[in-house]
Amino acid sequence: MREAGRVVARTLDLLAGALAPGLPTKELDRLARSEIKALGARPSFLGYLGYPAVICVSVNDEIVHGIPGDRVVKEGDLVSIDAGAVVDGFHGDAAVTLIVGETTPERRALVDATRKSLELGIEAARPGNRVGDVSAAIEGYIEQLGYGLVREYVGHGIGRKLHEPPQVPNYGPAGQGPVLRVGMTIAIEPMVNLGDWKTRTLDDEWTVVTLDGSPSAHFEHTVAITAGGPEVLTVP
Ligand code: MF3
Ligand code: CO
């Protein structure tokens, strides 16, 4: 799983370096496809429940599961990229929200807060803690900032499959849910909206957008629960 995580992280780094105004999102998908292959891995999203691309690219009010295409990114856009890879049957899954050039302070703060909430969730992913401790760490930080914390989509266990039990919600009380034990691997993935938390899905049946049209950010890491604490696997 460390190897799969490494492939995902290196792919996201490559895409971050390539992102620039004028780039069509399908170009990011093409780059990801060749990089994952070059690193000896297989893309896990392609064909998953019929998903038609290697990565998800979700721009501005798109929260998750945006399908790469002809849309061209522009200065100030928030571009969330979610990538998954399999190596020797084990999965890695991670996401980042990137800013194209400069954006408004309001949007920048949203991205920083979402990244920070993931860090706090990871910090709570320790053996003996419960899933709810991860959830509460994220919710406690985001709610006091007044953002909309997405509730309809959650983090998940990950391993030989992309999605395994347990679900890892980004909200809910501490001290509840399954106990985290050494050897478990989970994907923690807060999705945070500048406005309301409510979502809807576009006619393509994949792209999830904010109901109020406000911009959204998403960060995700695959994390192993070790005796020494959380180990982030999706690092280069
Ligand atoms: N990374 C997404 C998740 O964490 C999975 C995307 S599935 C796909 O749940 F089918 F959209 F690719
Ligand atoms: Co995931």
Task: Write a concise synopsis of the structure shown.
The chain has 236 residues and is of the alpha+beta class. It contains four helices and 15 strands.
Structure characterization notes:
The longest helix is centred in the middle third of the chain and has 19 residues. The protein has 236 residues and is of the alpha+beta class. It has one domain: Creatinase/methionine aminopeptidase superfamily (Creatine Amidinohydrolase, Alpha-Beta Complex). Helix 3 runs antiparallel to helix 4. The site of cobalt (II) ion (CO) has 5 residues, from loops. The site of cobalt (II) ion has 5 residues, from loops.
Spatial gap, N to C terminus:
13 Å
If you consult CATH, what is the topology? Creatine Amidinohydrolase
Domains, number: 1
Strand order of the largest sheet: 8-7-9-14-15
The averaged pLDDT comes out at 98
| Oligomeric state of the chains in view | single chain
Taken as a percent bin, the fraction of beta residues is 25-35%
SS-based class: alpha+beta
CATH architectural arrangement: Alpha-Beta Complex
CATH level-four homologous superfamily name:
Creatinase/methionine aminopeptidase superfamily
Query: What are the low-pLDDT stretches, counting only 5+ consecutive residues below 50?
Result: none
Give the bound compounds.
2-amino-4-trifluoromethylsulfanyl-butyric acid, cobalt (II) ion
- Shape verdict: globular
- What helical percentage do the residues reach? 25-40%
- State the CATH class: Alpha Beta
Summed up, the helix count is 4
